């Protein structure tokens, strides 16, 4: 969609995710992800407009607000703020951890697990492309495309810091308050991770931020309401940059 409107779009898998390499040393803290984003931005011929969903958004806040201010032309956060709802954090982490190490007997089994996690969506068939998000290993089982050590790290840090919902009172909240570039916050209208109170908290930290609320979308905004999400993204980018940018 972005390419059709003249943008150069680059889709990134964070370390330990998708087709990107896993960190041998288990370095999956937010500053590690932020450093990767800064390095990639620095390799481009112009500052990119960063669009980060969930963890990618948190990494973007830390990258621009702490690690290397001025790395990006703008920052769009997709259903993520420094302040998060404890129940939503627990639900997301629980889903990711549940089958991280034992995997699935088949893509159909993974599809059933997703349907249980997202009961508001029609049941997903494995033939619809789910296998793309799984790795088939020599033991004949299918595993998510993320490093189990990444999940272990989240659970360990949550045990140390609480449930992970209090970032707004710590380093990420401080980084957000330093954001000087154009910022766009998108919230899923039915999100259990980002509440209206969290939005108000963020907008107090970043008063110049634009805001879009996507009706009938959960934390999984893109999958729930892709057209409305795309319209919100495109409107912000066109108003902020025209097409002279990479996203």
Automatic annotation (TrEMBL):
Gene3D superfamilies, per the entry: alpha/beta hydrolase
Entries under Pfam families matching the protein: Abhydrolase_6 (PF12697)
Signal peptide feature range: none
Record's keyword terms, sorted: Hydrolase
Transmembrane stretches, start-end: none
GO molecular function: hydrolase activity
Annotated AB hydrolase-1 domain residues: 2-230
UniProt key word Cytoplasm: no
Protein name: Alpha/beta hydrolase fold protein
UniProt source species: Novosphingobium subterraneum
């Amino acid at each position: 969609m972005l390419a059709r409107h003249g943008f150069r779009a680059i889709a990134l898998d964070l370390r330990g995710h998708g087709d990107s390499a896993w960190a041998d040393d288990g370095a999956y803290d937010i500053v590690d992800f932020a450093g990767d984003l800064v390095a990639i931005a620095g390799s481009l011929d112009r500052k990119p407009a960063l669009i980060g969903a969930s963890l990618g958004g948190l990494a973007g806040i830390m990258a621009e607000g702490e690690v290397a201010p001025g790395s990006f032309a703008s920052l769009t956060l997709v259903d993520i703020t420094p302040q998060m709802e404890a129940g939503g954090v627990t639900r997301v982490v629980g889903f990711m951890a549940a089958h991280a190490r034992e995997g699935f007997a088949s893509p159909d089994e993974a599809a059933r697990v997703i349907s249980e996690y997202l009961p508001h969506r029609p049941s997903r068939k494995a033939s619809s492309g789910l296998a793309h998000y799984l790795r088939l290993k020599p033991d004949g089982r299918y595993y998510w495309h993320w490093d189990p050590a990444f999940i272990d790290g989240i659970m360990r840090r949550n045990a140390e810091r609480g449930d992970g919902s209090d970032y707004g009172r710590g380093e990420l909240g401080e980084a957000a308050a330093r954001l000087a570039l154009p910022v766009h916050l998108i919230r899923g209208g039915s999100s259990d991770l980002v509440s209206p109170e969290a939005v108000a908290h963020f907008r107090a930290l970043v008063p110049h931020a634009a805001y879009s609320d996507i009706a009938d979308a959960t934390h999984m905004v893109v999958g729930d309401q892709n057209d409305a999400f795309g319209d919100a993204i495109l409107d912000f980018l066109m108003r902020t940059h025209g097409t002279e940018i990479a996203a």
